[in-house]
Specification:
elongated, eight-stranded antiparallel β-sheet, mainly beta, about 45% strand, 2 domains, about 200 residues
């Protein structure tokens, strides 16, 4: 399995930031990939974030993907996605930019008991244009549009419509709920479910 951890961080793409992930169990222990076990932070031998990090790759447009270690047993865990400040992960200065409580079962990572992403992701994300119109078919500019995995609760990407009412997303293939928001407007299909094809 691969690419179970997904983080949308558009400002990271523009600035060239590197993200990484950390996995903790419910008692607060952190996963040590080399030792293949959970342990108290530092492991008694002064280990740091550089010893616990899981690499994440910026695929395009700020969509970062990473692997959840398949050797971690089924259960509920906390996943933290961190922005690396220096040349290596450093828990004293790096900021947490995403993540949350996740359920790991049978090689799949779930969030809020719904599938966060399929057990594998086509690494080529699709460019998907979502157009916002009012009840008369007029295109509307400056609308905040949020995309969620169909049936999920977490926003995986957001974008604003341009002058032509178009919001552009970079998403792996799948089914998404798009939610449009603008003060003073009511949209007929909200959320609007669409299929994104790679």
């Amino acid at each position: 399995m691969a690419n179970e951890i997904v983080q949308f961080y558009p400002q990271g793409s523009a600035a060239g930031y590197t993200l990484y992930s950390l996995a903790r169990n419910l008692t607060g222990q952190v996963w040590h990939p080399t030792g293949q076990a959970f342990e108290t932070w530092g492991g008694g031998v002064s280990r740091t974030a550089d010893d616990y990090d899981g690499a994440m790759t910026n695929k395009r447009g700020g969509l970062y993907l990473g692997n959840f270690d398949s050797n971690i047993p089924d259960g509920i865990y906390y996943v933290a996605v961190c922005r690396r400040v220096g040349t290596a992960p450093d828990d004293t200065i790096d900021a947490v930019v995403g993540g949350g409580r996740r359920r790991w079962v049978g090689g799949k990572l779930y969030e809020d008991d719904t599938l966060w992403l399929n057990n594998s992701v086509d690494l080529t994300t699709a460019t998907h244009t979502y157009t916002v119109t009012d009840g008369s078919g007029n295109r509307i500019a400056d609308v905040l549009v949020e995309a969620k995995i169909s049936g999920g609760s977490v926003v995986v990407q957001s974008a604003r419509t341009d002058a032509n009412g178009n919001a552009v997303f970079y998403l792996p293939a799948g089914i998404y709920d798009f939610i449009a928001t603008k003060a003073g407007f009511s949209f007929p299909a909200n959320p609007d479910r669409e299929t994104v094809s790679a």
